[in-house]
Specification:
The chain is an alpha+beta fold. The protein folds into 2 domains: about 5-130, MutM-like, N-terminal (N-terminal domain of MutM-like DNA repair proteins, Alpha-Beta Barrel); about 145-275, Helicase, Ruva Protein, domain 3, CATH 1.10.8. Helix content is about 25%, strand content about 25%. The protein binds a DNA duplex through helix 6. Pfam families: Fapy_DNA_glyco, H2TH.
DNA sequence: AGTCGCCTGGTA
DNA sequence: TACCAGGCGACT
């Protein structure tokens, strides 16, 4: 589920809830497979340390500890991180519980069991995660780089937007929404996107991410805030999950569903047309 | 580039 | 009952 705006929301809420500075008194792993990788024993290294940093890179959430270790969480499809008083009722799907010294617990879980929690030192975080991701779509992506990446491949633009090694943080919802705002067909060859369109698309990416962060992310199904509350961006989806409904720009044209790169894709065939591409021009001749 | 596996739950 | 899902890595 969670893409950049959802993880950013979690991060902001953890900061507001003053998690930084709290020390960790206990770790309970209810579902051992959630721990994807540890350089050392999870519990031994974490208990007794305190959280001194919370940040996000792409779709990863990082809890930095004061011993140079990091708890690195990837939510995959259905991951959920809740902050509860210890006495609060058990949350379904909880897989790992991090107890804080003020009586609160960070409870992480995932109904589909795809999500991962890893413990890694600063050097590993950099080598195994940060250096493998492209610039963060919300905070590090500029037109210069974006256009250069587009020029470098003929892959469908939508697939490129989802490629975390090229651009970090965009997932299926925001790829669909940004392409609609920029009026670009999801299957357009990346290299055929003109600089002017690239600028539009970059603006659209920044727009949808920022608006979603303002609304606390999208809770189409599984995403929850740290207090269990829902995001609201799904209330203003333009095309995502809207197959068969009218395009907001064309009341008589219905949103079409298709697959691009194996992922469900939504677009309006009137406002999002494939730019006349070079291959077609050659064939025409 | 496409398909499969990882798993479970919601919905047509 | 079948199909789909805010992801991603390992296959062919």
């Amino acid at each position: 589920m969670p893409e950049l705006p959802e993880i950013e929301t979690i991060k902001n809420q953890l900061l507001s809830a003053a998690v930084i500075g709290r020390s960790i008194t206990q770790i309970e792993v209810l579902y051992p497979q959630v721990v994807a990788y540890t350089e050392e024993g999870f519990e031994d290294v974490v208990v007794g340390t305190s959280v001194d940093d919370v940040h996000r890179k792409g779709k990863y959430l990082v809890l930095g500890l004061d011993n140079k270790r990091n708890i690195v969480i990837h939510f995959r499809m259905n991951g959920r991180l809740l902050l509860r008083e210890r006495t609060f009722a058990f949350d379904p799907y909880t897989q790992i519980v991090i107890s804080l010294d003020d009586g609160r617990e960070l409870r992480f879980g995932d109904s589909r069991k795809f999500a991962t929690v890893e413990l890694m030192c600063d050097a590993d975080l950099k080598a195994k995660i940060v250096n493998k991701l492209g610039p963060d779509a919300a905070s590090e992506l500029d037109l210069e780089y974006f256009y250069q990446v587009l020029q470098s491949t003929t892959r469908p633009i939508k697939s490129l937007l989802l490629d975390q090694q090229k651009i970090a943080g965009i997932g299926n919802i925001y790829a669909n929404e940004a392409l609609w705002w920029a009026k670009i067909h999801p299957e357009t060859s990346s290299a055929d996107v003109e600089k002017r369109e690239a600028k539009e698309l970059l603006g659209a990416i920044h727009r949808v991410l920022a608006e979603s962060i303002q609304l606390g992310g999208s809770s189409k199904r599984w995403f929850r805030h740290i207090d269990g509350g829902l995001g609201r961006y799904q209330e203003i989806f333009k095309v995502y999950n809207k197959a068969g409904l009218p395009c907001p720009r064309h009341q008589d044209v219905l949103i079409r569903y298709s697959k691009v790169g194996g992922r469900g894709t939504y677009h309006c065939e009137i406002c999002q047309q494939i730019a006349k591409n070079r291959q077609t021009s050659l064939i025409d001749q």
